[in-house]
Amino acid sequence: MASSQSQCSARLIRAVALDHDGRLPDALYHYEAGLELLLAEVSAEADPGRKARLREKAHEILTRAETIKRRLASRSGF
After folding, report:
1. Closest among 44, 31, 46, 32 to 5, alpha carbons compared
2. Can you give the C-alpha Rg of the chain in angstroms?
């Protein structure tokens, strides 16, 4: 079974690829799943420096996911 960290990385790599391909609904799904795994890593991390870097990355992912949500909402007229 893959580690949580590798599952997180795989999800986020997939999200970025889908994002670049313009497949925003699919990208959003993978960003959200990866973010959930990443936040679990943040909670479990003991090293303050690494924890800060993980939080920063989580913030970047959350910002991108929110941007995608807004774009999808504007496309659907909601």
Report:
1. 44
2. 13
Of residues 51, 54, 47, the one with CA closest to residue 8 = 54
CA distance 77 to 13: 29
* Alpha-carbon gap, residue 61 to 56, rounded angstroms: 9
- The beta-strand segments (E) located in the chain are none
- Which residue, among 40, 43, 41, 34, has the nearest Cα to 62 in the 3D structure? 34
Q: 39-77: per-residue pLDDT in tens?
A: 999 999 999 999 999 999 999 999 999 999 999 999 887
Answer whether 72's CB lies under 8 Å from 24's CB. yes
